[in-house]
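#lab-general

N.A. 3:47 PM
ok so I finally got the sequence cleaned up, no stray characters, all 306 residues accounted for. can someone with queue access submit it? mine expired

B.Y. 3:52 PM
send it over

N.A. 3:53 PM
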Amino acid sequence: MASHVPFGGFGQGIEFQVVGKPLQPGERHGAPFTAVSADYFSTMQIGLVKGRFFDSSDAYGTSPSIIISQTMARQVLSGEDAIGKKLTLGEQHSVGTIVGIVNDIKIYYLRERPGWHIYVPLAQFPSRTFGFVVRSSGDPTIMATAIRDALWAVDRDQPISSVEPLQNLIAVVNTGDRVVADLMVFFSVLAMFLGAIGIYGVMAHLVSQRIHEIGIRMALGASPVHVMRMVLSQGLKLALGGVGAGVLAALGATRLLATQLYQVTPTDPLTFSVVPLLFAIVALAACYVPAWRGMRVDPLVALRYE
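B.Y. 4:20 PM
back already:
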């Protein structure tokens, strides 16, 4: 159980202060705050970095225990050993002891950066609203029905707002990012298509301008394959120059895109190798038709071409 489920669309924050480390005038510290049951971390597969998880000893009426995220331990305590440190929480100034440090997780968006997070035992900090986290390998639809039945077997009048797979919650909160990504893909494909048309137009014009030259070359013994190679090489030089400029521009824009990426580094080697290769192939295909036409030129007709 947890007072807030990751990607659930809402959350709770709390102000805190490290006991023995006075804040500067006007300085305030706050972090997302989640009250959880003892088995929450194992269910969510949140790894323990140091210390311990909550257990049965963290009961109501006992001294509050606190678990914090790894980033919070590193940034707030400046590298000091966080285990055993005390925090003052909220307006009631409840003093709790840090008993564990866990891995960072994402709670609102997939692309959010690792941040501060405070966990407390649900038994010590009861919440009026909370959610259940269930891990299962079965059909989510069947599991949703079973979960509702189990809850209503305890309290038939208990309202249940929703029962959703975590994947669905992630999809909902990242709808905006997905729309932006889809639009970027669409305009990228459109730009590549327009670029291919542009390359085709330029190469067709260049071939038409060099018809007389091509006729002379073929009359002097140049083979059709040689003519095709000549036209393709000229087109590829232009295309590769554009691809190179595009790669440099993309590398320069990586810092602007870093916050918009998830599970992809700004300078992802696969992206920076496959995409230029794809553009080069498209450019080669766009050059092929003008080159093929140049290869089929009749030398006698070309020599009379003005």
